[in-house]
Amino acid sequence: MDKNPSIQCIVSECRYHAGNADYCTLDQISVGRVDSVSNKSEDTDCESFIAKDKTF
Question: Would 31 be classed as within a structural domain?
Fold first, then answer.
């Protein structure tokens, strides 16, 4: 899969990580809140994350 130059990502454990570059291969991602109010980056999560070793 080709990297998406618009979505940088360093989470190499994700199924959608580009592998050879720190980018995502998805066309778009979903970002969600961890808590009811988000005031810093730690309060958010990439909801598109799927672990590489996860099987369906």
Answer: yes
Gyration radius (Cα) of the chain, Å = 12
Listed as ranges, residues in the chain with pLDDT below 70 are 56
CA dist list (Å): 33 to 3, 7, 8, 45: 25, 18, 19, 6
- The pair of structure tokens assigned to 30 is 């979903």
pTM: 0.84
Domains: count for the chain: 1
Contact between residue 35 and residue 18 where contact means Cβ atoms under 8 Å apart: no
